[in-house]
## 1
Amino acid sequence: MRLRAAIDAYLEFVEGRSDTRKTWLRARGVLSRFYQVAGNKLLDNLTPFDVSAYLAECRRLGNKKSTRDTNVKLLSGYWKWCQESEITERRSPIRSIHRLTGVTHRPPRTLTETEQARLLLACESYAKPFERARVRAVVTIALCCGMRRGEIAGLRLVDYEQEKHQFRVLGKGSKLRIQPIPEVAIPAIETLVVVVKEKGFDRLVCTNTGRQVGEGSLHAMWSRLLRKAGVPHVPFHSCRHTYAIRFFEGGHNLKVIQALLGHASLKTTEVYLQGLDVEQAKIDAVKREFAK
C-alpha cells in the first residue's frame, strides 16, 4: 500500500476511536506534512532518511524540539497501527531516527509535595466562591485521581457516585472506567457539588453559565494558578504523572496503576515512570512489606 492510502485509513481509524476532534486534527497535520516531504511511496520503501527529511522540514518551519519529539511519537504510533492492521510487516523506519537527529525523550516532570501544597493553598486566593470551589476541585481531582484534563472537563453531577466515593469516567476511545476517589479529595469535590446544585447546573466542572469548561480554559486556569502559587511552569498533565509515581512508590504493581490511569497498554504506563529511582522504590517496598 502507498503512503497516502495508508494515511487515509489511519485517520479514519483515529476519527472513529478518538473522543476529541483535536486528536484527529493533530494526526492529520503531522501525517500530511510527512506525506508532502516523503511523497506517495510504497510503505515498504520508506526509510529513516525520509523521517529525517521530515524533521528537517519541521526545524525549518520553526517547530520546537518538544514538538518534533511529539511528532516522532505520532509517526511511531501510525507505523505500529500499520503493522497491527497487516498493511506492512516492515520494521519501522522511525525506530532508528534518534541516531540521525538526536531526538531524546526527557523523563516526565512531576510535582513535589511542597509544590502540590502551594498549588492547593493558592486555590484559596480566588475571591469568588464558585471560582474558588471549581479551581480547588479541579486541582484536587487531578492530583488525587490522576484524571486527564479532558476527563475532568467532561464530568457531570451524575458521574459522581457520592456513597461509593468514585467517578464514572469516559476516557480515551469512549471507554468507561470507575475512578476511586480518596478520602482526602472528598471535601473539595463535595463543596463544588453543593455550589453547582445551588445554581441548578448538571455539570460538575462548568462555566458560570453551566456550560462545559473547555480544555483550553482549564489550561489557562492552570497557568494562572501556577503563577499565583509561585511554582515553575509544568503542564497540567504532570499531575497525572505525579499520581502514577505516588502509587508506584507505594508498592503497587503496574497492572493496578494501568487500570487507575485508564491506559490501554502497559507500555504507556511504563513511560510515566521514566526517571524514577526504581531500585530505591524496590527497597522501600520491601521495607514496608516486612515492617507489617
## 2
Amino acid sequence: MGAGVTGLLTAVEPVPAEALSGRRLSHLDVLESEAVHVIREVVAESARPVLLFSGGKDSAVLLHLARKAFWPAPVPFPLLHVDTGHNFPEVLAFRDALVARLGLRLVVAAVQDSIDAGRVVDRPGASRNPLQTVTLLDAIAANGYDAVFGGARRDEEKARAKERVVSVRDEFGQWEPRNQRPELWNLYNARHSPGEHVRVFPMSNWTELDVWRYVARESLELPDIYYAHRREVFERAEMLLCPGEGSRPRADEPVRELTVRFRTVGDMSCTGAVSSTARTPAEVAIEIAATRITERGATRADDRASEAAMEDRKREGYF
C-alpha cells in the first residue's frame, strides 16, 4: 500500500432480524451489541455527548459502532480531536477525508493554541502528549460536553483495566478510581453533578485482536500506516521512531529505511513502529495473536516513563 488514504469506512447496513433468528451470536456480534447498547443508553441520558476521534483504528471502529447505533439516522453528536501538532500526516488525511464524506462535524482542539495562550509549556525535545490533558479539558468545558466517548480498551494498559465503562470525572476533569460506580448486570449510570462529566468506553471489553478481526469482518478502511510499508526510522530506547517534527534523531541514531507498520498512531514523538510484513487486516490479526505485549507497551514511549505513567495522567484528566 502507498502512503495516504486507502479508503473510507464502509456504508452501514442493519442486519435483518430473520438473519439473526435461530443462530447464536458470535464473539464479535456480542461485543458489537454491547457497544451499541452503551452508546444508545448514554446518549439517551446526556445533553451534549461527543466522540473522541483521532483517525486511529480504535476511534474508527468506535465511529462505525456509533453509526450502527443510530442507522439510518446520522450520528447525533460531533467528533473531537485533540491535535498535538505532531500527528502523522497520513492519519490526519484519513480523518479529514472520512469526516467530509460522512458529513460529520469535527471539532479540533489544538495543543498549539494552549501553548500560545500560556495554558501549557512546550519543552523543546519533549513529547507534547502529556500536554493534551489541558487542551482536552478546556475543549470539554468550552463546549459543555457532558459525555465523552473514547475508544480505550481494558487490555491496553493496567490503569485502563481499572476503568468502568461509564467513568465519572469530577468538576476538575480528574479521575478517582475509588469513586467509580458499580456496573452490575450491565447497568450504566451516566448521571453526574453540574460541572462533572462522564467518559464512556463502549469498547472496554474488546482486545486488540478483536479490533482487527472486526476491521476485517466489516471491511473497514484505516490509514495506510497500520499496514507494512517502507519508512525511514531510527532506534531510540529499543523503539523505532520516525524522523519528523518533535522526533529528531541524534547524532548517534542513524536513520534507516525498513519495512514497518504501526500498532497505534499517537503523537509522532512517542509512537514507535514495529517490523512487520502484514499488509491486510487478516495478516495483522495473525501477528497480534502471536504477540504477548500490548500495543501501548510495545510502541508508546510515554507509557514507559514509570509504572504508573498512564494512571498519573488519567488522574489529571487524560483520555
## 3
Amino acid sequence: MTVPARSRPAPSRLARTGLARTGLARTGPGRRVRQRLIPPRYRPAAVALVTACGITVAVLGALFYHGGSPDALDKAVFSAVWPHRRGLAPLAPAAGPVPVGVATAVLCYCCLALRRYTGAIMLALAVPAASGSTELLKHVIHRIYLGFLSFPSGHTTATFALITCVVMLLVEPPARTTPRSMRVVLAVLSVGFGGLVALGLVAARWHYFTDTIGGAAMGIGVTLVVALALDLAAARRDRSNVAAAAPRKRPRAPRSGPAAPAEHG
C-alpha cells in the first residue's frame, strides 16, 4: 500500500502579511532576502537618472562659476512668478532645515514601525548627505545672489532628497495593500509640491531658478546613489547568508577493497 506524501501546508494570510511587512522575500526553503529599495527592473533608469543629474550640476556649475547675474531662463521664470508672489513666497520656509528635519524624522519612525529598516537608513543618510554635498559645492562654484552663495539651492536639495525617498518607498512597498493608483497619485503630488517650493524660493527672492534646478539634481542624484549603495550592500549580505545557510556536503569515506585472503603457513 502506497502512503501519500505529506503536503506542506500553505502559509496563512497572516504569515504572508507579516513577512511582507518586514520587507522579506523568500527565495527558497528557509531562505529570505531583504527587498530592495530600487527594484532590479528600475536600476538602469536609476543609473541613467544619476548620470543626468551629475551632468546637469556640472554644466550649470560651469556656466555660473563665480557669477552673480541671472541668465535668460532666470529672468523669464522670475517675471512669471513675481505677480503670484503672495501665494508662492510662503512656501519657501517649508524647505527650511526644521520642517525638512521633522519630516525626515517622522518618515524614519514610520519606516521603523513598518520594519522597513533599509528605508529608514536611506532617509537618515540621503537627506544629510545631499545637503552637506550642496553646501560644499556652493563654496566651490561661488555664485552670489543678493550677497549669499546660491548655487545649488540647499533648500531645494533637501526638499527633493526627501521627495525622492518618498517616491522610492512608494514604488514597490513590501505589503501591497495600497492601490497602485493611489501610490502614483501620492508620488505625483510629492513631486508637484517640490516644484511649487522651488517656485516659491524664486518668488521670495532667495534663489535664481537655475539654483533650484541644480538643487533638485543634487537631491535626486545623491539620494539615488545612497539607495543603490544600500541595495548593493544588502545583496552582498544576502549572498553571504544564503551561502552560510546552504547544507555542506560531508566528504565521503574512501571505499575499502575486498579483504585479502589470509595466508596459512
## 4
Amino acid sequence: MNISFRFLNAANPEIRGLIERLDAELTERLGKAQSAYDAQNGLADIEWFCLASQNGVALGCGALKRYSPGVYEVKRVYVERSFRREGVAQALMERLIDKARSLGATELILETNRDFAPALGLYRKMGFQPIDRYVPYADREESVCLAKTLAGDAPLIRVVKNQLDMSLAMVKSAIEACPDGLWGAKAGGFVLWQQILHALSGTLFWMRGDNGEFDEPFRDRKVYPELERDPVGTVTKGEMRALAERTGALAEAFFAGKDDDWLLAPNATYDKRTNAEVSLGQIRHLMYHAGHFDSALRDRGLAAVPWEE
C-alpha cells in the first residue's frame, strides 16, 4: 500500500475530520467514561500531527506532544475503519517515532485503554514496554501506559527511506499544486510537467533492481524525460499521478527487507555506486526538481508546494 505522510498542525481540516471520527468512535465504545479524557485530548498543545493519505484520501493520523525535556507523548492515533489491518497504523507510528528522534527525543510514552487489544499489540510489537501510569493517568485503572527508549535504536536505512518518501511526497504535491492552465507552460527552459517526468523517471531507472533495459515511461510519445528537447507529445496530470504512485511502489520494493549493510553494497543497476549513493542521489534529484517546480509556482503568485517533515 503506497501511503503519503505529511506533518501538519491541528488547524488542518483533514486532521480535524479524523479527530472528530476518533472521538465519536471512542464515545461509542466507552460511553460517558470517555469524557474524563477530554482535558488530555485537546489539540491546542499538540504541535505535530502526521496525516496519512493515499491518492488524496485521508487514511489516518497520529500526533506528538512534548511531555517533558527529551520525552514526547504519542497522541490521537487513528485509522479510518475501512483502511484498518493494512499496515497504516504501523506506518504512522514509524513516522511518529522518526519525527520524535528528529526533535531530539530520547523517549516516547503513550496511554491507551486496557481493552484495546489491537492497539496494545501494535505498540508492543514496535518496542513499547509497560510502565507505571504517568500523570495525568496515575489514578485511572483502565489506562495502560507504555514507553519506548529511542537513544541509539534508529537504523540508518529507515532514515534514508523516510527522506526518500518525503521527497516523493513533495513531487506528488507539486503535481496537485499546478493549475491545469500552467501544466504545459515553460519555466527555466523546460515544460513544467516534463520536469516531474524527468525526476520520476530517474528514480524508476535507478531503483529498478537490475541492469537490464529500462522501460522508459511514455516512450512512444516523444516526451523526452531526459530533457534533451521539447516534448512532442504530452502527459496528463492523471497519468503523472499514476506514474508517481508507480515510482513509490518501486521504491517500497527497492528497500523492502533490506538493512544498513545493504546500503553500502553495490547497486544492481550500476555497481560502481552503492545503494546509499543511489538513494541519496535520488533524494537530491527529486528535491531539486520539486524546488524548480515550486519556484515556477511562486513566480506566478501561486501557493508554494507544501514542505514535508
